[in-house]
Amino acid sequence: REEVVGYMTIYRSENYYYLPYAVTRKGWRRRGVAGTLLDAVEKLAKEEKVEYILMSVYLYNRSVRTFLKERGYVSSKKLIQYSKIITNKGRK
Question: How far apart are CA 17 and CA 73, in angstroms?
């Protein structure tokens, strides 16, 4: 039986990839899924001569931040992400 256990959304700008979403199904985490997906994205980026890959990670998500640091990613000193809540629908 086949099932989707992880995915990444990729947007391409002129000189970089932006990955706003990377998800691994619960029960499959820490089994190499995200690493395999990121390897494929990095390989594609090299083939397409993309300068860099940009991702957003919540501050509280230490495991993903550690994972990215171990793979050579660095936090940006130039980018701050802003958000605005428009409605509380669905929030508790």
Answer: 13
In whole angstroms, what is the distance from residue 3 CA to residue 18 CA?
A: 25
DSSP code for 27: T
Q: Tell me what pLDDT residue 92 has.
A: 59
Number of Cβ within 10 Å of residue 34's Cβ equals 20
Cβ neighbours for 45, distance < 8 A, ≥ 6 positions apart: 17, 53
Task: Specify the residue for token string 């395999």.
Answer: 36
Calculated CA dihedral for residues 27, 72, 59, 77, nearest 10 degrees: -160
Q: How much is the pLDDT for 91?
A: 60
Q: In whole angstroms, what is the distance from residue 8 CA to residue 30 CA? A: 16
Q: How many percent of the chain have pLDDT more than 70?
A: 97
87 three-state secondary structure: coil
